[in-house]
TrEMBL record:
Record lineage: Bacteria, Pseudomonadati, Pseudomonadota, Gammaproteobacteria, Pseudomonadales
GO cellular component: a single term: cytoplasm
Gene: nadE
Record-level Gene Ontology MF annotations: ATP binding; glutaminase activity; NAD+ synthase (glutamine-hydrolyzing) activity; NAD+ synthase activity
PROSITE patterns given in the database record: CN_HYDROLASE
Protein name: Glutamine-dependent NAD(+) synthetase
The entry's keywords: ATP-binding, Ligase, NAD, Nucleotide-binding
Name of the top EC class for this enzyme: ligase
Source organism: Marinobacter algicola DG893
Length: 550
C-alpha cells in the first residue's frame, strides 16, 4: 500500500543509519538504546529518519526467547515506551509482532508518538545459521509510506535477497527503499551484499539504504558495513565494518531520491577484516556474559600466540592472563617465545609445570597400565592436566577460559577432549590453520608481538619427542584445501580426488572429519568467519552409517 500525501512535493531527507550493537533479550536496555541514539541523531545530525537494524528491540537472533509467553507483552511495552517519548525524527525499528495466532519479523515506523506503519518480513530465511521459519510466518503486504514528503518502501534483510519485495515497493511508488538487516559476517559477505544492493537499486531505479547490525552474539558476528546505493546502482555511502555508530546520509528527492555521495572508505585486507571480526566476537562474548577476565594456555605455538593477541586487543592487557604449562617435551624455544609474547602484550603471565601432576597420575595408573606401551593416552593426559589447571583458575577468579584450537584441528579431531578443548570460547574455531599464519603476520604488521620463529617453525603439539603436526596430518596447505571442499562445499571424496588430490589423503581426511563429530559437539563455541562453521551451520548426526565416496 502507499500512503504518500497527495500534492506534497518531495524535497530533502536526512537519513541516519543506526549501526548499533544490541543485547539479545534485553528489551528494556535495547529500547533505551534506540531512544538515546534517536536523540543523538537529532541533536548531532538533524535527522529526519533514523533506521535501526532488524529485530533491534529483542536483539538478533532471539531464538527460543520468541516462544516465551511474555515476549509479546515486553515488546508491546517497548513500543509504548518509544511512542511515549515523542521523538523528533521518524524511526524504523525491528521487533517481533504477533497478529492473531501468527508471529512476524516486523519493521515498525513511529513518528511523533504514533505508529504510522508496520511491515512484516516476507521471506524469513531457513538455511545456514538461520531458522526463522521455526518462529515467524511469511508476510504478504508491501509498505510504502510518506516520510517528509518522500515515498519510502520498507523491507527486511532476506527480502532484498529474494525477488518481489523491492520490486513491489518500487512499483508502489517508492523512491527510496530502506532495508533493516541482521546479516552475520563471513569472509566474502560484504562483497556479496554490495553486489546485491547495487543490482537491486539499478534494476528497480530506486535508492536503497541497507542498515546492518553490529556486534557479537554467541558464535555469530555482525559486522555492520551499512551501505547506500543510488537509483543507478552507484555506491553513495558506506559505514565501516566493525564500527558502531550513527551514519547520516542526505537525499535530494525530485524525480529520484538521490543520495549525496560521500568519500569512499578504505577497503580492508582480508586479514584485517577477519582479525577485527575475531576481536569483536571475543569482546562481546566476554562482556555481554559478564566475565571479568580471560585466561588461556600459552604454549609458544602460533595458535595460542594469535589467540593471546586477539584477547589483549579485545579486552585490554589487564583483563588477560596467560599460563605456560611446560612438560619434559616442551622446548626451550617455546618457553622463551611464550614469555616474549606475554611481555610484548603486557598481560599477566604465569608458569606452572605439569610434571609433578603427570608423575602423580602415572603412579596412580601404574597398576592398570602394567604391561601396556605408552601411546596417545599419555599424550592426552598432558593436555588434560593443562585443562584442569586452567579451569581451576577460571573457577577461582571468574575468568573465561579461551581455548586455542583452529578449524583444521577441530575438523580432523587433532585435539584432546577435556584437555585443550576444555574452556568456554574457542577464538580460532572457524579459522583454518593457513589463515592463522596470515593473521599472525597481519598482527605483527600493526606491532611486533609474535616472535617470527613462532610463525616460521613447523607446528607441533609437543606431546612427544620431536613431534610435528605433519607427522599425523597432510601439510596444512593440502589439508585446508581438502577441508574447504568437504566441509564448506559439501563435495564428496570422489569429487575432491577428481580435482587432483591424493586418494589416500582425501580418504583419511574425510574419515577423520566424520568420526570426530562427537568431539565437536562437546567443543566450546567460537567466532564464525566462514560460510560453513562447525555449529549451527553444519549439523551432522554423530551416529550414522553414511559411507564416504560418491
Amino acid at each position: 500500500m502507499s500512503v504518500q500525501k497527495d500534492g506534497q512535493e518531495p524535497g530533502k531527507l536526512r537519513v541516519v543509519m543506526a549501526q548499533l550493537d544490541f543485547l539479545v533479550g534485553d528489551i528494556p536496555g535495547n529500547t533505551q538504546k534506540v531512544i538515546e541514539a534517536t536523540r543523538r541523531a537529532e541533536q548531532e545530525h538533524q535527522a529526519d529518519l533514523v533506521v535501526f537494524p532488524e529485530l533491534c528491540l529483542t536483539g538478533y537472533p532471539p531464538e527460543d526467547l520468541l516462544l516465551r509467553p511474555s515476549m509479546d507483552v515486553r515488546v508491546a511495552d517497548a513500543l509504548e515506551t518509544l511512542r511515549g517519548e515523542h521523538l523528533g525524527p521518524a524511526i524504523i525499528v525491528g521487533a517481533p509482532i504477533r497478529e492473531g495466532a501468527l508471529l512476524y519479523n516486523a519493521a515498525v515506523a513511529i513518528e511523533q508518538g504514533n505508529i504510522t506503519g508496520r511491515y512484516f518480513k516476507r521471506f524469513p530465511p531457513n538455511y545456514q545459521v538461520f531458522d526463522e521459519k521455526r518462529y515467524f510466518a511469511n508476510g504478504v503486504d508491501t509498505l510504502v509510506m510518506d516520510i517528509k514528503g518522500v515515498p519510502v518502501g520498507i523491507t527486511i534483510c532476506e527480502d532484498i535477497w529474494s525477488e518481489g519485495p523491492v520490486e513491489d515497493a518500487a512499483a508502489a511508488g517508492a523512491r527510496l527503499v530502506v532495508n533493516l538487516n541482521a546479516s552475520p559476517y563471513d569472509i566474502d559477505k560484504q562483497v556479496r551484499r554490495k553486489a546485491l544492493v547495487e543490482r537491486k537499486a539499478f534494476e528497480n531505479r530506486v535508492s536503497i539504504v541497507y542498515v546492518n547490525l553490529i556486534g557479537g552474539q554467541d558464535e555469530l558476528v555482525f559486522d555492520g558495513g551499512s551501505v547506500v546505493y543510488d537509483h543507478s546502482g552507484v555506491l553513495a555511502a558506506e559505514a565501516p565494518q566493525f564500527s558502531e555508530g550513527l551514519y547520516p546520509v542526505d537525499f535530494v528527492c525530485e524525480h529520484h531520491c538521490q543520495p549525496i555521495p560521500q568519500p569512499a572508505i578504505a577497503e580492508p585486507s582480508l586479514e584485517e577484516n577477519v582479525y577485527k571480526a575475531l576481536v569483536l566476537g571475543v569482546r562481546d562474548y566476554v562482556n555481554k556474559n559478564g566475565f571479568k577476565s580471560v585466561v588461556l594456555g600459552l604454549s609458544g605455538g602460533i595458535d595460542s600466540a594469535v589467540t593471546l593477541a586477539i584477547a589483549a586487543d579485545a579486552l585490554g592487557a589487564d583483563r588477560v592472563r596467560a599460563v605456560m604449562m611446560p612438560f619434559r617435551y616442551t622446548s626451550g624455544m617455546s618457553i622463551e617465545d611464550a614469555e616474549a609474547e606475554a611481555v610484548a602484550l603486557g598481560v599477566q603471565y604465569d608458569v606452572f609445570s605439569i610434571e609433578p601432576m603427570y608423575d602423580a597420575f602415572m603412579e596412580t595408573l601404574a597398576a592398570p597400565f602394567e604391561g601396556t606401551k605408552p601411546d596417545t593416552t599419555e599424550e592426552n593426559l598432558q593436555a588434560r592436566l593443562r585443562g584442569v589447571l586452567l579451569m581451576s583458575l577460571s573457577n577461582k577468579f571468574g575468568s573465561l577460559v579461551l581455548t586455542t584450537g583452529n578449524k583444521s584441528e577441530m575438523a580432523v579431531g587433532y585435539s584432546t577432549l577435556y584437555g585443550d578443548m576444555a574452556g568456554g570460547f574457542d577464538v580460532l574455531k572457524d579459522v583454518p590453520k593457513t589463515l592463522v599464519f596470515r593473521l599472525a603476520w597481519y598482527r605483527n604488521s600493526v606491532s611486533q608481538v609474535i616472535p617470527e620463529r613462532v610463525i616460521t617453525r613447523p607446528p607441533s603439539a609437543e606431546l612427544a619427542p620431536d613431534q610435528k603436526d605433519e607427522d599425523s596430518l597432510p601439510g596444512y596447505d593440502v589439508l585446508d584445501q581438502i577441508l574447504n571442499l568437504y566441509v564448506e562445499r559439501d563435495l564428496s571424496a570422489d569429487a575432491i580426488v577428481a580435482q587432483g588430490f591424493d586418494r589416500a589423503d582425501v580418504d583419511r581426511v574425510v574419515r577423520l572429519v566424520d568420526i570426530n563429530e562427537y568431539k565437536r559437539r562437546q567443543a566450546p563455541i567460537g567466532v564464525r568467519i566462514t560460510e560453513r562453521g562447525f555449529g549451527k551451520d553444519r549439523r551432522y548426526p554423530i551416529t550414522n552409517g553414511w559411507k564416504s565416496g560418491k
